[in-house]
Amino acid sequence: MTLMTTEQVAEFLDVKVERVRRLARENLLVAKQQDDQGEPIFDKDDVEKYKELAQRLGGI
């Protein structure tokens, strides 16, 4: 399992960091844990699956 920070996810999805935080709050992108500052950390496989699904539905 490869973990990604909020910033890495934002870059991968080509969105702002605030958008990633909102996706996590709304449980559309589920965080595996939190870092020392309380920021969510995501599993790369989950992020890739989310991106694929979002693209099928018309975009992120």
The fraction of residues assigned to DSSP E strands is 5-15%
Helix and strand composition category: alpha+beta
Order of helices and strands: EHHEEH
The helix content, as a percent range, equals 40-55%
List the quaternary state of the chains.
single chain
- Cα distance, first to last residue? 23 Å
Strands, count? 3
Rounded to an integer in angstroms, the radius of gyration calculated over CA atoms is 11 Å
CATH fold type:
Multidrug-efflux Transporter Regulator, Chain: A, Domain 2
Main beta sheet: strand number and arrangement?
3 strands, antiparallel
Low-confidence stretches are none
The name of the CATH architecture is Orthogonal Bundle
Tell me, rounded to a whole number, the average pLDDT: 94
Give the strand line-up of the largest sheet.
1-3-2
Net shape: globular
- Tally of helical runs: 3
CATH class: Mainly Alpha
Organism: Pseudoalteromonas rubra
Protein name: Helix-turn-helix domain-containing protein
Domain Helix-turn-helix: 3-52
InterPro entries: DNA-bd_dom_put_sf, HTH_17
Distinctive features:
alpha+beta; 3 helices; globular; Helix-turn-helix domain-containing protein; HTH_17; three-stranded antiparallel sheet; 60 residues
